[in-house]
Amino acid sequence: MATDPTSAINRVSENNNSLVVCFGEMLIDFVPTVAGVSLAEAPAFKKAPGGAPANVAVGISRLGGTSAFIGKVGDDEFGYMLSNILKENNVNNSGVRFDPNARTALAFVTLRADGEREFLFYRNPSADMLLREVELDIALLKQGRIFHYGSISLIEEPCKSTHLAALSIAKKAGCFLSYDPNLRLALWPSPEAARKGIMSIWDQADLIKVSEDEITFLTGGDDPYSDEVVLKKLFHPNLKLLVVTEGSEGCRYYTKEFRGRVPGVKVKPVDTTGAGDAFVSGILNGLASDLSLCQDEKRLREALLFANACGALTVTERGAIPALPTKDAVLQFLSKVAT
């Protein structure tokens, strides 16, 4: 099926109710200045703002959408830096809280020679884990058309209860619920706890985005390429859209009515940090202006091709937020690919 990468995106209206509220962690990634070395061998590190939900919020704003971030950072230099980065990128940061007793989270991210990552986290506990329910910006939550979240905020209390409360408020307000589990096994007490925690809110989401590795993990080792596995074990009756990302190979999509594949866009990877978040930004930016995308396969494929291109462009630079593309950059890239 032919896909026109521009038409779905250019249909984005200036609808006031297209706000995407992202909930969860924001942190500092320290990325080695050279690829293909271990943390111990790295000669130096470049600091880059990160944290999947924050990346998605910035990604949406870069694409011309409207986004907000709710989360907690330390009452420290890094925390204020991160809050300012949201503001500089036109993300509503009124839901950001500052903890006087805990530091902003840090993650050292090693880039292997192939651009894939390994993580070392400093969170003992970090401020993002300490967001309390009374600190939630309820008015902001209720304003969102889409509420987007991950699973890292489900690992520890009080953030876990706060996440569940925010989810409940957003659902009652009629928000479309978007879930990217974003598995970081090293942060969970055990693989069993991770599986249980991630699946505990699975059946609430309208949209779920998972990677092949996450399918293997969540299903206990089943084939991530099997439609039967995905439909039987991961699709649930409330889901409007399930997307399986396959890195440079593109993505698969599943709805109640149809399913298929959209090929990836090949680039030379420098750093895969933030590629999945850029993909999520791309698809949520389309959905924020028109939730009926999920019912129209042609337009959904166009939006997914656009999202694939968002992910591809992001891996051509180091760091997540610095590498997130603008709408013009994505459309230009897709028109080059098409010729």
UniProtKB/TrEMBL annotation:
Residues 19-326 form the Carbohydrate kinase PfkB domain. Belongs to the carbohydrate kinase PfkB family. This is fructokinase. May play an important role in maintaining the flux of carbon towards starch formation. Pathway: Glycan biosynthesis; starch biosynthesis. It catalyses: D-fructose + ATP = D-fructose 6-phosphate + ADP + H(+). GO terms for cellular component: cytosol. It comes from Parasponia andersonii (Sponia andersonii). GO terms for biological process: fructose metabolic process. Pfam families: PfkB. GO terms for molecular function: ATP binding; fructokinase activity. Keywords: ATP-binding, Carbohydrate metabolism, Kinase, Nucleotide-binding, Transferase. CDD domains: bac_FRK. It is an enzyme of class 2 (transferase). InterPro entries: Carboh/pur_kinase_PfkB_CS, PfkB_Carbo_kinase, PfkB_dom, Ribo/fructo_kinase, Ribokinase-like. Its EC number is 2.7.1.4.
